[in-house]
Amino acid sequence: MNLMYRSTRDSKVAVKASEAILKGLCDDGGLFVPERIPALQKTTKELSEMDYRAVAYEVMKEFITDFTEEELKTCIANAYDEKFDTEEIAPLTFADGAYYLELFHGRTIAFKDMALSILPHLMITSARKNDIKNDIVILTATSGDTGKAALAGFADVKGTKIVVFFPKDGVSNVQKLQMITQKGDNTKVVGVDGNFDDCQTGVKKMFGDEALKNEIAGKGYQFSSANSINIGRLVPQIVYYVYAYTRLVKNERIADGDKMNVVVPTGNFGNILAAYYAKKMGLPIGKLICASNENKVLFDFFETGVYDRNRKFILTSSPSMDILISSNLERLIFHLTGDNAEATAKFMEELKSSGKYEITPEMKEGLKDFAGFYASEDATAEVIKSLYEETGYVIDTHTAVAASAYRQYCKATSDETATVIASTASPFKFARSVMTAIDKKYDELGDFELIDELSKIGNVAIPEAINEIKNADIRHKTECSVEDMKSTVQDFLR
Asked: Considering only 1-5, 7-11, 199-203, 224-228, which range has the smallest mean pLDDT?
């Protein structure tokens, strides 16, 4: 029997997984959620004997039920292949009392590769299953990493086009170079004069613009999304938490059934929501530790039950987390209401009209699985420096936010549960911030000199993703205002 997907804002909506993947966002502006969270069907012991691809199948088949076994396994095989530079796909590294789940071994050296390597395959398969004749136009807002990973996944994929909007002054130089040098005749990259929330809001407006959708349909196109609002992004992210737990059991770091805490550096809330879904599937996860940078809207939410985006937007050294509207939190709100779409819609309308909402005391009780902490810029730099000096292990700024949160959590609770920290990006992607945290003297070096030095001190080879952009041609030079995002898409599709 097919697992159906419902809207967080309209209880009457019910579609199959392939339809939800194709649409990306519900017509009412809500997000697709599974009607129930399925349980894992294999034991931990059985899963621990499988490789990453096999674990991915066991998790994803429970959510994507209208794909045949062959269809889903083909998508997985095409995604998790030699484009990852480690056989494990998502290896664990132990340092300073925690297990760092390295999610950056894909083509664009960030955790978004874990889902965006498979999303194009899921989407094309979904299009065939639903007899879609239109070309699919991927509209994506990025705070730095999703954009490049989506571009790499969809470049030159037949039957698709992709438009990526990024805040032109809100990403690292390496992130920007990765995007604006992207090849592919079906790709368009646009720097927006605004922040990530502006980009994300602009994209959501286009999804809700019926006149625009009708206009592009007349040209043979339909919109979809590669952001974490797409359920086809979220489901593959559940896999690596299941995989991590089974590796800890297999390597006898924990006993089968022991709990595992998870720490996730959090911006749009998709990555930690995937861990929440893994817990709901039956994975023995204890605490879900939500780590924020100085844009600590989520930390404040977990402390008070009030979500309030009415605050100053801060540009930090962890730009992929510079977000004040965490879209995937809507899915958690929906579950906290008891899967009440009408109640969720009211909260989202409050957020739209006043910029904030407050959940009920009963809903706040449901947050007990979570703990929120945040790291200042100084604390983030201090963790990078101390971890390197004590262990020789080098982490990026986003992972450092999580490591700082974990240290705070341990100090506050004395909890000794085995803990996995989601390491979401390669330090090479943020070399300046990483190297100057280790020693201020490095600030005198150029970007690629810093990368060479990072390779030396960390004893790690420079990723191919960095080598590719050193002398690459800049192919995308378009910039626009927030107001001109729509016309930019219209011009591209002409």
From this structure: 224-228
Q: What are the structure tokens assigned to 389, written together?
A: 């000096």
pLDDT digits (tens, 9 = 90+) for 19-34: 999 999 999 999 999 9
CA dihedral 91, 95, 99, 101 (to 10 degrees): -40
- The CA distance from 232 to 270, in Å, is 11
Question: pLDDT tens digits, residue range 148-197?
Answer: 999 999 999 999 999 999 999 999 999 999 999 999 999 999 999 999 99
Cα separation, 463 vs 465, whole angstroms: 5
Burial 75-89 (b: 16+ CB within 10 A, else e): bbeebbeebbeeeeb
User: What residue type is assigned to position 343 of the chain?
Assistant: A
SS3 category, 366: helix
Give every strand in the sheet of 160-167, ordered side by side.
Answer: 221-225, 135-141, 160-167, 187-192, 478-480
Which has the closest alpha carbon to 141: 482, 459, 454?
Answer: 482
Looking from the CA of 289 toward its CB, the CA atoms found within 13 Å total 29
Q: Which amino acid is at 286?
A: G
For residues 226 and 267, the answer to whether their CB atoms sit within 8 Å is no
For the chain, give the percent of residues with pLDDT over 70: 100
Q: Give me the pLDDT at residue 284, please.
A: 98
Q: Is 109 left (phi over 0), alpha (psi -120 to 50) or beta?
A: left
From CA 269, how far away is CA 332, in angstroms rounded?
A: 9
Q: CA 403 to CA 399: how far, in whole Å?
A: 6
Mark residue 355 as left, alpha or beta (left: phi above 0; alpha: psi -120 to 50; beta: remaining): left
pTM of the model: 0.94
**Taking a C-beta distance cutoff of 8 angstroms, is the pair 419, 263 a contact?**
yes
Q: Which of 198, 213, 144 is nearest to 484 (CA)?
A: 198
Supply 394's token pair.
Answer: 């080098």
To the query of whether residue 112 is one of the catalytic residues in this protein, the response is yes
**pLDDT score for 372:** 98
Contact 32, 231 (CB under 8 A): yes
Question: CB-hemisphere CA count at 13 Å for 443?
Answer: 7
- Grouping H, G, I as helix, E, B as strand and the rest as coil, residue 487 is helix
Active-site option among 112, 129, 161, 204: 112
Cα–Cα distance between 192 and 190 in angstroms, integer? 6
Report d(CA 452, CA 428) in Å as an integer.
Answer: 9
How far, in whole angstroms, is CA 120 from its chain's centroid?
15
**Is 38 in contact with 15 (CB distance < 8 Å)?**
no
| CA-based nearest residue to 393, from 123, 144, 173, 95 | 95
**pLDDT tens for residues 226-265?**
888 899 999 999 999 999 999 999 999 999 999 999 999 9
Q: For the chain, which domains are there?
A: 92-110+232-462 (3.40.50.1100)
Q: What is the pLDDT of residue 144?
A: 83
